Amino acid sequence: MSGPSSSTNPPTDPPSIETPAPNPEKGHQLYACGHCGRRYSRPEHLQRHVQTHTLGRRFACGICGKTFARADLKKRHETNHENDDSKKRRRTTTALNSGRVTHACKACAAARVKCQEEKPCQRCTRRGLTCVSSDAGSAAAMNLVHLSASARSNDDEYESGPSTGPAPTSFPLDQTSLYGQTVQLQSQPQSRSGTPNTGDLTRSEASSSQQPDADQLPFCDFLRDVLYEQQYDQPARMPDNTGLDVLDFCNDTNMELSDMDFGLLDHWNAGGTGPNNLNAIPAQADTPRSDNSADVAHAHIRQNLVTAWDVSPWRWDPVAKDNAFGEQGNLPVSKKDVASLQAEASQGGLRRVVDQRLDFAARDGVLALVLGACQPDAMSSRISGSFPSADLLDTMLHVFLNSHTNQVSDYIHFPTFKLNEQEPEWIAGAAAAGAVLTPIPTLRKFGYALQEAIRIVMPKRFEENNESILNIGLIHAIVIGQDTGLWSGNRRKMEIAECHVNIPTTMMRYRGKFQRSTYPMLSVTAADEGANLEQKWRTWVDMEKWKRFVFHLFLRDSQQSMTALTNPVMSYAELTLPLPASKELWYAKTARDWKHAYLRREDGHVKRAPSVGDLFRDLNLLAENRHRLDVQLSAAIYLQAYWLLILEYRNLCSSYRIRSYTQDPYGNTNSLLNARRHQLLQDLQTFKVTTMNWPEITAQERLLLNQLMMALHISIDDLQLFAGKEGDEQAHRAFHVLQQWVESVDSRAAIWHAGQVLRFAKLFPSAQLKNFYAVGVHHAALAIWTYGVIKKAGTKQDVSSQHEKIYTDGPESMGIQRYINTGQGLPVFRGPASRNGVSEATIENPKAGMEAIHEILQANFGGANRMAPAIVENLCVLIRQLDFYLQNMASQDTSTALVATTTVVSTVLFLVVARALLYPVQPKTIRNPLKLGVYDKANADKVKNLVYQPDQFPGARDVETPYGSTRVYEFGPEDGEKILFVHGISTPCITLAPIALALSKRGYRVMLFDLFGRGFSDGVADIPHDARLYVSQMLLVLASSPLAWTGTNAFRLVGYSLGGGIAIHFANAFPNLVRDLVLLAPAGLIRAASFGRVSRFLFVSGLVPERILAVATRHRLQKPIAASARPSPVAPVEPVTTPPLNVVEAEVNPASGKAVTPLEKRVMEYVRWAVTHHQGFVPAFMSSIRFAPLMEQHDAWAKLAQRAPGTTAILLARTDEIINPDDYRRDALSLVGGEQHVRWRILPGSHDFVMTNPQDILREIQDMWETKA
């Protein structure tokens, strides 16, 4: 997949145009390129070669726009233009490793296949096509996705030089994507050589025998070659820097065994902190204890937890090797990592926040800064040869800018932002911040190394010219670098960044940026126009940028204080400046837009907006000025400022050694502190009630609010001490204090707020539960763990089902208040939603609780296989260690354990025997009725009346795949627009016959096929029938066509029922292939109740043996239609008591209310026939119920909103017995962008409306396509 710049300027460097790569036998070459290993005998030749790596393609042809890395190449190219007359003989042959021809013809360019220099080309001649040459050079650029512009050999060596890290020799199929999710494939991992080539790069002409045999290629490479229709001298294998988006289906896995597997390199954290290091922690020997000896058990826990805190990200013990230059070896970046980041950005749909691209001059400025920080000098040449290009830095910058737009305190004004006018220090700091957000370990290392280099050179910039402290861009650069370090998860970087946070604060404090007088109100009238209005807007923008930047520093300072429990650098009392203005004003793109918004929002106001201190005095000012302020940011400022009040209270409590839940040795002091605490709680409760229904207040502010209220009910410092932060002695002292807390009202209130923290953590947008907010989840985990451990060890708790469950992560209720006040009820909270449902954990079972909280953190980043930020990974380690050391809390006696062990062993033996009888081993492929001879002449009379015959449609073919045979039909005019159909769960493609035949008669080229286990396709028994299998089948079907079905907007996709759910995953994975998407009663959001409780339990639980379930399913699918016609509709007397129709039943029996059409009846009869005669049908049906995209596909549906408006149609049936139109409107319409984004229609008929009402469907489809045309 091409990177950000590949669509504009394709690579043009010819192979070996300079000094030929020497043969080692011809002499010793002294000068070697640090990036690719190429060697030269003269330094000027090496210098010229390095420019191709570092400076990019700066020289553009003035005639055709083609770009070059060197001026001499551009000059020679322009000379060729001058001599390009009609008499000049054109080259008719190309080298075997040539990347592309000068100009491909239009037919070959559209099909993305190899063309020839001589016209007409062989492909057009062979196919009878008109060979028309394309005059635009951009056609070659469009083919860059599929063809390498660099001259590379076709053998198994993929790299022309050594990379910066060891190349893995084996690559797993499950990969991590920056914007997607990870799903493990069922097939075995492939491997291929990654040995770098350090020899001669100039190859002799390769013979055909050197090209790899297709039978020996990994399956993904073989399928790629088939799908792209390799022709003649086109290489049979694409270069590694070519993306393979066609195999990255479902946006959740990458089958290409190349660049993404570079993530197997060492983790960024040199200290080795990570989940895998958990086993390295020495475990203490278990010590039996009596039921009344809690102190003994806690002594062992405390000893273990003291060790756990040694790997905390907040503990750093410097060693001799720690210095500012230790990470410079990570600054060179290999081609593998460049391709990985660009592939991730392309696959994830990285949004460009600004329309400018980083130019080469800006990139060279960053390189100069980095070289200025290098030691020793030998490292400079290596960095120069392998420093990222402008395109790669531009991608990193946009990763950072996208992240910046998602944060509460955004301070970059994008309407006036000019990327290439920023200071080099700013560009470097932002690129570093973006690099550490990528999931590629080597690029994360690069980001941290770049951040370290900028930290070294920044002081020199300010010392050279002290006026630089007025340059907001340079101060931005300092803060961006500090933000990267503060939340890096690296102990050294976090401590160094914390040591320097006061530098930008002090700079702005003494420039008066905290004071109200610095931000006067502007006089804006409706008459302001032209330069006067532009000047006022610019003045306002400058003030607002400083204001928002000040508040960003304040939020960061307060968050760091809450994280480390230290005193902040900034005080709320000195922040007299007004709160930030509304987002509408901040995001106004022009001065005129800003003026209209300003007059509307500031009309009638003669005073400036309130400050944070004003909100302390009167919180109603927030509601009164709601239309003037950025409410979300203002609320965050108010809450973070409130932490400073809570910290003052906690410091006093610590000084007097009293808590609200302990005995009072100082009567008057405790009374005063309790009064202060009561006032703080009351103010926060007022804020909660005031903003309860404000849409501007997001999950981030709700989490922070409950974190603050939890801190008023329990000292976080006490929790950390008990967890072993300062050793066993302090943990023992904290234990006795917390014993009193557990029995108090405060403990139950703290647990309630901790549950609320988890509640709102689960509502965070994907990949946003990080940094400070992840620390908040950790604090909640500490509170829950401490309460559960002490409660479980100190008393015998009755956690029977007779107690009412109190969901601490649910909305507030009378049950919650009763639990807090009296302790009645069983407190529980829920884990993240998953495909297997939602797990529950009781507060008094700390082991289950820590597992659930660990899952909450991981679920926000796509699960355990995704690479979360390092700070989150470290917090997960601490939480898992809390779970790990609970093994010393075992209180079961020996006899109970013996009985349990005996029971388990007996049960396992029984299950082993039962499995052999009830779970038969299926073959990998189950042959279809054609292969079994069911349709032979001897059985002709038995099958002649079936609605579905092998020659039912023209253009039939059987496609042999690694999974089995697939029946495909393709018919209609070859030059017609292409349409691919995907049918439902129980019927073959015959159900779509009325629509497909009608469209073929209207000039469309249509393709139908039978899903695995249906019709005349083989069954697949060893792989789950999920979206991955069916999307792979679709790719194989497309590849089997003699026509080109790939390319931009290659075909229209129509999916019915289950086929609709499959089509959604295909369209999400390959949005450029699918021109229009039509979903007919699509699956994906079917509610669980529609399946019936019994049916869902039978299929999903796994408790019912396969043999028994198959018999029951076969019996149900064979039930005949009760009558030849449905009864006339009669309103039920008690419709509420009518049981819902089971989905399995509905797939066999059409809904009542209308007459059964002949086609409907014959199709249902065929289904019953297939149950008996297609041995793969019932296994496929059962597996589809379990694994296919039928339910809970909200994430996949939400991605439809990213498609262009008007390219998606969702057609539902009014009386559908499976797909409820009202439920889908509530669940799906908002996900896909609303009716203004998709074509949403309710048509007559039931779920079988593709057979009963095809004309209505055809009318809507044709209207949609004609409207677009």
Automatic annotation (TrEMBL):
Region (Disordered) residue spans: 1-24, 75-94, 152-215
Cited SUPFAM superfamilies: alpha/beta-Hydrolases, beta-beta-alpha zinc fingers, Zn2/Cys6 DNA-binding domain
Stored InterPro entries: AB_hydrolase_1, AB_hydrolase_fold, Hydrolase_4, Zn2-C6_fun-type_DNA-bd_sf, Zn2Cys6_DnaBD, Znf_C2H2_sf, Znf_C2H2_type
Domain Zn(2)-C6 fungal-type residues, every copy: 104-133
Record SMART domains: GAL4, ZnF_C2H2
GO biological process, one term: DNA-templated transcription
Top-level lineage group: Eukaryota
Domain (C2H2-type): residue spans on this chain: 31-58, 59-86
MF term (GO), any: DNA-binding transcription factor activity, RNA polymerase II-specific
The entry's keywords: Metal-binding, Nucleus, Transcription, Transcription regulation, Zinc, Zinc-finger
PROSITE patterns: ZINC_FINGER_C2H2_1, ZINC_FINGER_C2H2_2, ZN2_CY6_FUNGAL_1, ZN2_CY6_FUNGAL_2
Protein name, as recorded: Uncharacterized protein
